[in-house]
Design goal:
367 residues; 10-stranded mixed sheet; 36% helix; two-stranded antiparallel ribbon; globular; alpha/beta; single chain
């Protein structure tokens, strides 16, 4: 588990109880990645208490992070403070520690009653399970949950051009190696600020235990309760955002765009993505929704053209690392359909593409 937090993540006590109950306590470890606002002493104490009960939880403070990043001098300046982007440090550390499966968890993703480990342990296995293919090429994971009130609800990152339109779903049985599993989010699902402001709802139960995305069908992928195989690490980089366009920061979609890039490569290399269990209980931290809307403004606008272009870019490489570099080259040369902001968008994504190159180089250093 990799978790970033500026709080004391006491939810890990519940994860420890769940792992102990189902016999997986010694199969799982946790890396808690701190930041400048993290109460370092209290979090270190919590990690020590968890280790005493048999759960290998380790707090990684700023000094240790700094020493670790000294090994990656090109990457170090690209990982800002006060940012979810610092979970990239945890990803690299997890791989170096030998983790086969890395699970990104937010500090408000509380463990549910079912076997959390078992739900994610399919990652890396070749499975034959129920799969979904969508006529418009996009599946909405919120369709797997009963909502209260029962209104159409779309996961954060689902393209707006594809919402509230007929979209035929075809189900079959498909087989493939699962390299990413998106665990779902009961109570407060992962939706964008526009949805929370206009049509708030709660997810009360799962309707499907698991669905596999058929080749060619995409879905938004976040970093809340999301497990991926170590092979995917070069292609599952929490991309840097935060730079302003016309004075407004581009924020809050670093994980969503990372998921788009990963989905593109997973399809290209004929691996698979699943959604479903384990479902966490998302007790969302306090947010100022209008402030969130400002931070998501450009991200929402850019998501549709980014997804559309991604689908059209040809790839030829036969590994995740090489294909990610190929994808970054496409991103550098992309044009953006916005009359006044196109040049700023282009500069923004060129900078992101350079960071993606640097990430692949850091992963190669580990290898």
């Amino acid at each position: 588990m990799v978790i970033t937090t500026i709080n004391v993540p006491r939810l890990l006590e519940d994860y420890a109880r769940n792992l102990e109950r189902f016999g997986h306590l010694t199969d799982t470890s946790a890396l808690i990645i701190g930041d400048r606002k993290t109460p370092h002493g209290a979090v270190a104490d919590l990690a020590a208490k968890l280790r005493m009960r048999g759960f290998d939880a380790r707090y990684v403070g700023l000094e240790e992070q700094d020493r670790f990043l000294d090994r990656f001098p090109r990457l170090k300046p690209l990982i800002p403070f006060n940012s979810d982007n610092r979970r990239n440090i945890g990803y690299l550390m997890a791989k170096e520690r030998g983790a086969e499966i890395i699970v990104a968890v937010d500090d408000d993703n509380f463990v549910g009653a079912d076997d959390w480990y078992e739900g994610h342990s399919l990652v890396g296995s070749t499975l034959k399970v129920k799969s979904v293919s969508c006529a418009n090429g996009w599946f909405n994971p919120c369709r797997m949950m009963d909502m209260d009130p029962p209104i159409p609800t779309y996961a954060r990152g689902y393209p707006y051009a594809q919402r509230h339109m007929a979209n035929e779903e075809t189900f079959s049985v498909s087989e493939g190696r699962v390299v990413l599993n998106g665990g779902l989010w009961l109570d407060d699902p992962d939706v964008d600020s526009l949805t929370r402001l206009t049509t708030p709802g709660r997810a009360v139960r799962l309707k499907e235990d698991r669905l596999m995305l058929a080749p060619g069908t995409w879905a938004p992928i976040n970093t809340q309760n999301t497990a991926f195989h170590r092979d995917l690490l070069p292609a599952f980089y929490f991309v840097p955002v935060g730079d302003p366009v016309s004075g407004i920061a581009v924020e809050r979609y670093g994980d969503i765009w990372a998921g788009f890039f990963a989905r593109k490569l997973i399809d290209h290399l004929d691996d698979r993505v699943t959604f479903g269990r384990p479902a966490c209980e998302h007790r969302r931290n306090a947010h100022h929704l209008l402030g969130d809307l400002e931070l998501e403004f450009w991200s929402i606008i850019l998501t549709d053209p980014l997804a559309e272009q991604l689908r059209s870019w040809p790839l030829t490489a036969s590994s995740y690392a090489d294909a990610y570099v190929e994808l970054a080259e496409h991103l550098k040369s992309a044009e953006w359909p916005h009359r006044r902001m196109a040049a700023e968008f282009k500069s923004f994504f060129i900078k992101m593409a350079h960071a993606m190159h640097t990430w692949v180089y850091a992963c190669m250093q580990l290898d």
